[in-house]
Amino acid sequence: SQTIHQWPATLVQPVGSPLSLECTVEGTSNPNLYWYRQAAGRGLQLLFYSVGIGQISSEVPQNLSASRPQDRQFILSSKKLLLSDSGFYLCAWGGNREQQFFGPGTRLTVL
Amino acid sequence: GEDVEQSLFLSVREGDSSVINCTYTDSSSTYLYWYKQEPGAGLQLLTYIFSNMDMKQDQRLTVLLNKKDKHLSLRIADTQTGDSAIYFCAAPGAGSYQLTFGKGTKLSVIP
To answer: How many helices (H) and strands (E) does chain B have?
Structure first.
């Protein structure tokens, strides 16, 4: 069966520091991969998605970047964090049709 | 692009039925999805319905689809305290293999 992992689970970082969040998927090959941010208002904002290694699509201009160095690995990064980057970051992988399966999330607090 | 709307809050008594409503705009949506998010966790795919169906039942969950009015509902029978969570409706988004999520309905179950 397929599983999706995210780490770390919780992160507190100062403004201006770098960021690296990692997501890995097991039990499937060549999945579509997604990064979402969920702010306090609860809505999900799609940040990036990837249909293959090295292929990244950005949905909104922002202080973040994404990379997919391996088939089942998706990384979210920032060179310098802003206060507004705080939130709950969710990684998901895409199965058949459009359905998506989510990881447990990373709670990021920027101080 | 697709727009998905949900009411933000619903409060029910334990043992009663809960009905969570959702409207969407894109009539070409093929599958429509319901996700559940418990506090501090990722989203869990609860159920989905194909657009050529009117109803789908899965144990305590019933999904109703009115394609003419672009209205989707999730009924939870015999609601339990463990059903307290945020429920997201999702429809295929603008791009391939993308989903557009509603803002989520927070279901509170009163013992």
So the answer is: 0, 11
